[in-house]
Write a structure and sequence with these properties.
The chain has 10 helices and 6 strands, in the order ααααββααααββααββ. The protein has about 260 residues and is α+β, with helices and mostly antiparallel strands. A hairpin with a 2-residue loop joins β3 and β4.
Length: about 260
């Protein structure tokens, strides 16, 4: 039976995903290791070395090892030692995926009935009121999500006044994207011109968002709430969305 994650479980899941796959290069390294763990016939090829990863992605060997160790720490990659040649010498570490067919996502947190009812309820309100209410709901939940991840509570004015925000704006945006992904948005952060944006390849609101576009305001609120706790005040605007006829949902961010 499906159930919602508790705040502790969700925080642990987000921490694991952010640590292992929060870096785009690390995601690509994981896919590279997965592809090289088995050859075309399905026979175990023994995995890859940090040197091979460094050469493939043009990284310093220490940086390659750092990414691989993060994947090992998350349980996605395992280490074996062996010799790659006939000569004597120190055995090389080889990395291979722990579970080749593992899906890189958590179960989607979606309740179609509740989402549909929320959309219908908001539709009964004047458009401007519904938009503000939906964004505020998202904002409050985003604040709670960030606190579960260990973010700063923006209500603590003394902490903010001392400038003790825990992350840079860009790092906070990546953390937000990872948290949204854990909630079913399949999101990633990217730059565009002089700004930053969060691109979501999947919407957990499903068809309800197409029928009730006001639900997109919940998404904006989530982003604002998490950024407020992880970084500080920021503005979020919907640049494109599926309800508007676009292929992806894009939230533009300004700090």
């Amino acid at each position: 039976m499906d159930r919602s994650l508790t705040p502790t479980e969700f925080s642990s899941a987000v921490t694991a995903i952010t640590s292992a796959f929060g870096d785009p290069t690390r995601r690509q390294i994981y896919l590279f290791v997965r592809d090289r763990s088995d050859d075309d016939s399905g026979v175990d090829s023994g995995g890859v070395t940090a040197g091979e990863v460094a050469d493939t992605f043009t990284l310093h060997p220490n940086v390659a090892r750092h990414h691989l160790d993060k994947l090992v720490g998350g349980g996605y990659v395992e280490v074996a030692t062996g010799r790659t040649g006939a000569g004597a010498g120190r055995p090389s570490k080889r990395y291979r995926v722990s579970t080749p067919d593992m899906a890189l996502e958590l179960p989607l947190r979606q309740d179609e009935l509740v989402t549909s009812l929320l959309g219908r309820a908001l539709a009964l309100l004047p458009a401007e009121t519904a938009e503000a209410m939906a964004e505020d709901v998202g904002l409050q939940y985003g604040l709670a999500m960030a606190r579960a991840m260990g973010g700063t509570d923006p209500a603590d004015a003394e902490v903010l006044a001392r400038g003790q925000v825990p992350r840079s704006f860009r790092a906070a945006l990546h953390a937000v994207a990872d948290a949204l992904t854990a909630h079913g948005f399949a999101a990633h952060a990217e730059g565009k011109g002089n700004g930053l944006q969060i691109v979501s390849d999947h919407c957990p609101f499903g068809d309800a968002a197409i029928e009730h576009p006001v639900l997109c305001a919940v998404d904006r609120g989530l982003v604002r709430g998490m950024l407020s706790a992880l970084y500080g005040d920021a503005q979020a605007d919907t640049s494109s969305s599926r309800p508007m006829g676009d292929d992806k949902c894009v939230t533009s961010i300004t700090g």
